[in-house]
What we know:
With 156 residues, the chain is α+β, with helices and mostly antiparallel strands. The chain has a single domain, classed as EF-hand (Recoverin, domain 1), CATH 1.10.238. The protein has 8 helices and 5 strands, in the order E-E-E-H-H-H-E-H-H-H-E-H-H. It has helices at 42-51, 59-71, 77-87, 97-100, 104-107, 113-123, 133-141, 144-150; strands at residues 2-11, 19-27, 33-41, 94-95, 131-132. The strands form 2 sheets. Strands 1-2-3 form a 3-stranded antiparallel β-sheet. The protein has a two-stranded antiparallel sheet with strand order 4-5. The N and C termini lie far apart (39 Å).
Amino acid sequence: MTYCSSSYSRSQSHSHPYQYxxxxxxxxxxxxxxxxxxxxxxxxxxxxxxxxxxxxxxxQNFMKVVQAIMMGSNATDxxxxxxxxxxxxxxxxxxxxxxxxxxxxxxxxxxxSNTLYTMIxxxxxxxxxxxxxxxxxxLVKGDLGRDLVYRDVLxx
Length: 156
């Protein structure tokens, strides 16, 4: 995928509080241009910014990961693979708690290591306490991102 353009903006509407939007376009392998927009409530994005000095993930990559997680079952396999690659900072081919901790606490305030371990155990089919790409795809396609935001799941 070739990224052509991107932009950030803050917006407000009557139905939504302030949101931070990331818009980007890319050209797919078959030459089509796909436009995407990811919107986050400002408080969610601000939480990420407050974690930024400790993190090794850029704002742009953060938004790409959040997009895949929040799109859930509607996320493309390409978006999920890219999110996985961004999070897999040690290039082990798996995600552990420390790698998930780069994004999940910004989406779900108060997330603890125990919460992240519970999430991994829920989707870890081979019992290695990490998520490989297929397990991460199941996590994302299972709409866990939306569950995190609405706190319907993983209340520990």
